[in-house]
Amino acid sequence: MARRAIVVGSGAGGSIAAMVLAEAGWDVVVLEKGPDLTTGPTGRGPVGTEFSNDELKSRFRHFNAPDPLVHPQTFRASDDQPVSHVGMVSALPQVVGGGTVHWDAKTPRFWDLDFAALSANGPQPDADVRDWPFDYAALAPFYDEVEALLGVQGDADALSGATKRHAPRGGPFPLPPGPQQRASLVTAAGARAIGLHPSPIPAAINSRPHDHRPACVNCGFCAGYGCPSDARGSALSPLRRALRTGRVELVPDTMVTRVVMRGRRAGGVEWTRTTPDGPRTGRRSADLVVLAASATETVRLALLSGLPDASGMIGRRLMLHSILDLWGVFPGERLHAHKGRSATQFVEDFNDPAFPGAGDYARMHGLPYLRGGMVELGLGSDPVHEGQSYRRHLRELRPDKPFGADFKRLMRASLLRDRFTRVAMVGTDLPYLRNTVTLDPQVKDVHGLPVSRITYATGRHESLALEFYLPWLAWILLESGAEVVTRTAATTHVPDSIHVLGGMHLGDDPKTSVCDPYGRVHGTDNLIVADGSVAVTSGGHNPTLTLMAVALRSLRHIA
Fold first, then answer.
1. pLDDT the model gives residue 63
2. Residue 405 contacts by C-beta under 8 Å, 6 or more apart in sequence?
3. pTM given for the model
């Protein structure tokens, strides 16, 4: 009789888990909280979807995020403050394929410094800096495999010298870089002019046909949108491989509410589902349970289930990348930043703690070092967002008429879209014990269960890093020809990062970590975690490729 596994979540980690287990002969049930918007996932050719290039869906109708009235979260800035927000807090899409069906598919690798954060750079005041229980070299072959699976494009020769030292590759990327966006090339030239080292961003987007999926046509509707052509790689690729084995049952619209523990063993899960006839509940049994519901939801499920927690660390060390976003206006030229693949060039210089001046600035302020992160060059805006900006400014100038001929002239001139571009740094976020995911004692979801309560505040290291690198980002834009440079104003105090990490971190010692080096929850025999919650550090790069590689390493060992 085949061994049975339950995988909770079908995103980046869950799809890898289903693929590895099914190909090793396990019978697998994948329980996904969100809907299945795909058709023909086991066939050849592109996966059919219900996705479309629709800005209203993306911005206003919760198509790429959970409905905050049905599945809210709560937020507070510290333990001694009351909840200040009920709604979405750094929420990821809940749909078959998870966040990867709406991502912009940036897939750089973490550096060796990220896996040896404590031993390479030392401690930071107030932070809980630790090393991962394995190094970059141990993960490198799994990086290679995931890149091939997703169809990652890039130019290994063009990567900076620091990147080649800290994230060495064994060969070229699976695919060459696709066409480069004008806005990215213009800002890359500005970065190069001030001594930085831009290169094409590694991205899981087909530059030519790959894995029975077509090449990208650079439609411009990338970050935040589902890909109608399936040219962009995602968790649907490993999920499709899993489904083709005939040993995987995909069950969408089903929320797991508890892991059923019998001593050290997970015997299965309990689930609930909303139907036209009312709620349905049930239980599934298994020989192995894999949690891959996203960092906040996996922690929430762990707390709802009362999982073993000898270290007292479940839900602690939440990390959300600090994003520094600057934009520039180029009145004399059209950059077409809204066309393409979100951004096609980046620099990694600021990810290096040895970047000139960073160490001195850190020591001047009483810190041992500073790390920024990768910077995406040439990001854009869409017409609806542009129009909202003009309406907002016109309403301030003349509240009775925020439209009309002036609005039309602004849209035609397109200062905030076609003559506009952004550069954004994905800043390293250190782990702090005070940043947590817990259960809210008052707010419940549509099923009557306590929701995730996010407690988070930016640390001193992050604030100083943003302060140090802000002038550098402005310099890039000015050297690129921008006549106006400004920072994107914060519109809310609530974190909205889509890079959500920590809460169930890996480690050798059950007294100081939640999971062992292969994701098995300490104190259990058959309960594995395979999503962003296992991260020990956040790195200064988009994390999804790393999370998929870590899941692949863990599940190969288990299977």
1. 65
2. none
3. 0.95
